[in-house]
Design brief:
With 162 residues, the chain is an alpha/beta fold. The chain folds into two domains: 63 residues; 66 residues, Roll (Chitinase A, domain 3). The chain is built from four helices and seven strands, in the order βααββββαββα. It has a five-stranded mixed sheet. A hairpin with a 2-residue loop joins strand 3 and strand 4. The mean pLDDT is 88.
């Protein structure tokens, strides 16, 4: 039989497991973001202990991969305060009117982002459009010159305990 049709084991043909991608750019975090990283690391360490006790190699590898990601994020975290001048920026919650609808958008780090909860990463297009704005500003977005009206800006750490 030709070696082309022979297989030693199924493990030779498993898809490789890659590391979780690290977002590009600085790892800016709010106080809540730093606490989130610590919480995730603690939970993964506990899950790793349980997985090692049960000897599930695949689960252990996945937990170790996630743990490496979060430990890297902790190491590279740059705690960043909201702008002192009261303008919108990283670490602020911006009250806006978009399309006649009021929204409170928090500008946070990549790991804290949850667009469904209006928590946008500082690199997201809407967050970038808001950075530097002050209450009363009318901003362009999505091809419209008057798409966003900034109503208020407040620092997140002043309203969200860590």
């Amino acid at each position: 039989m030709s070696v082309a049709f022979r297989r030693e084991s199924d493990e030779e043909h498993l898809e490789p497991k890659f590391e979780l991608p690290i977002p590009t750019g600085p790892n800016l975090v709010t106080r809540a973001g730093k606490a989130l990283i610590e919480t995730r690391i603690a939970a993964l360490k506990q899950a790793l202990e349980q997985a090692l006790a049960q000897a599930g190699a695949e689960a252990v590898d996945a937990i170790r991969r996630d743990l490496r990601y979060w430990q890297t994020r902790r190491t590279t975290a740059v705690p960043t305060a909201a702008p002192a001048d009261g303008s919108a920026g990283f670490g602020t919650r911006v009250q806006v009117t978009i399309g006649g609808r009021e929204r409170a958008i928090a500008i946070v780090g990549d790991d804290e982002a949850d667009p469904r909860a209006d928590r946008l990463a500082f690199g997201a297009p809407l967050a970038r459009a808001l950075i530097g704005a002050e209450p009363g500003d009318i901003l362009p977005f999505g091809g419209r010159d008057d798409a966003i009206e900034v109503v208020a800006v407040e620092p997140i750490d002043a309203v969200e305990p860590s």
